[in-house]
Amino acid sequence: MAKTPKILVVDDERIFRESLLAWFEEDGYDVDAADCGEDGLKLFEKGKYDVILLDMKMPGMSGIELLAKIKEIEPEAIVIMITAFASVQTAIKALKDGAFDYITKPVDPDELAHLVDKALRQKTLTEENVELKKQLDEIVKPDNLVGDSPEMKKILDLVQTVAATDTTVLVRGESGVGKELVAKAIHLNSERKYFPMVTVNCGALAETLLESELFGHEKGAFTGARHKRKGKFEMADNGTIFLDEIGTVSPKMQVELLRVLESKQFTRVGGNDTVTSNFRVIAATNEPLEDRVKEGKFREDLYYRLNVFNVFIPPLRDRPEDIPALAEFFRHKFASAMNKKIEKISPAAMDFLKSYEWRGNVRELENAIERAVVVGKGDAIEVEDLPFHTRGERADDAENETSLADVEKRHIHKVLLRNEWNISRSAKTLGVDRATLYNKIEKYGLKKPDAQ
């Protein structure tokens, strides 16, 4: 239900003041009135008014003085000045001091009604713009990048650092760790946030389809091309294009991509005209591209073009501190979406989540919590609500115990990540010498993520 607009009238002429009260109340407004500037200021300080009507000349505090005090308290307040002594100088003075407009006595009721309506529409527009900006400011916070681990804090710092630039970013990590979420956080914290982020899953499309998807096509370019179609690079003009699974693209497409990344220009399939687009590139991969370069399956020059700034997301099993926060985030998300009063995760269920081997990373955890919210009956998620509680896959289950070598490999990898691959610090943490640690790294095939 719409709020009734509230108006404050401050005028020392009783008959005029009462006439305004009657006019506005008849039109359905909520109206307060004062006969002097001092009383008007007291009313303003107590209430919240949409429009204030001030007589310019009053005994004691003048309308101009009251206008200044109102603007000190609420700079966005909409004030209309009323004067019986109209002049260019008084009008300019009022407007310079922040008045929305002014009107002269004797007042035409229709003219005043129109002016107040205009002022209210201006106020509504201003409030909508403020609310929109607030929403945008809220969106740019990477709320879905949840976690308290040192690794996640480092990722958030990297997001904030690189978002302020137009640098090309390569996001690395296993499937399900949240690479697209990191890309979105970078985009939404950048100056490009008011323009689209366009996502392309390179691994899901055949070469010919990917070419049309990225560059667009002209009408008649191939069978079924009945209309001209913009490609993703063109759609991402002034925004960001996210190239997921970049390591899967064919050698031919790698050549095309390199050319576009270097020139920001391309032609649509079946076309001759050059299209220019001002896009930012964020790419993602779940496989080591440097290995594909060595194997001759990925162009070295394209690799270096993409790998300007590197963000590595460790798997969830290497940052178990993040599991409780992520689980609670997903519980709240799905409970709200399904309108279910599931207010917590039981201690036993949380212990189970923390001990589970998350092979599918954050995506698997999200799916598990969604399923638990669907089947849950009480106010808490219990162990039996989780989809894998009968599989016996707890880390401490004897029948599914991983080998000692697997445990050692995982532990060494976690320590190296936490120490940013500083061999001396990592060796000290592990209680071994540097030579032993180097031997373990080689034995288990552990590889350092690309330097940031």
Helix proportion = 40-55%
Strand content: 5-15%
Largest sheet: 5 strands, parallel
Shape summary:
elongated
How large, in whole angstroms, is the Cα Rg?
32 Å
CATH architecture of the largest domain: 3-Layer(aba) Sandwich
Total strands: 16
Average residue pLDDT: 85
Contiguous low-pLDDT stretches (5 residues minimum) are 390-402
CATH class type of the largest domain: Alpha Beta
CATH superfamily (homologous) name of the largest domain: P-loop containing nucleotide triphosphate hydrolases
Q: What structural category arises from helix and sheet content?
A: alpha/beta
Count of separate DSSP helical elements = 18
- Biggest sheet strand order reads 2-1-3-4-5
Number of domains: 4
Q: Give me the CATH fold name of the largest domain.
A: Rossmann fold
Head-to-tail CA distance between termini: 53 Å
How would you describe this structure to a colleague?
The chain is an alpha/beta fold and 452 residues long. It has four domains: 131 residues, 3-Layer(aba) Sandwich (Rossmann fold), CATH 3.40.50.2300; 165 residues, P-loop containing nucleotide triphosphate hydrolases (Rossmann fold, 3-Layer(aba) Sandwich), CATH 3.40.50.300; 84 residues, Helicase, Ruva Protein, domain 3 (Orthogonal Bundle), CATH 1.10.8.60; 41 residues, Arc Repressor Mutant, subunit A. The chain is 47% helix and 14% strand. It has 18 helices and 16 strands. The strands form five sheets. Strands 2-1-3-4-5 form a five-stranded parallel β-sheet, with helices on both faces. Strands 7-10-13-6-14 form a five-stranded parallel β-sheet. Helix 2 runs parallel beside helix 3. It starts with 5 loop residues before the first strand and ends in an 8-residue tail after the last helix.
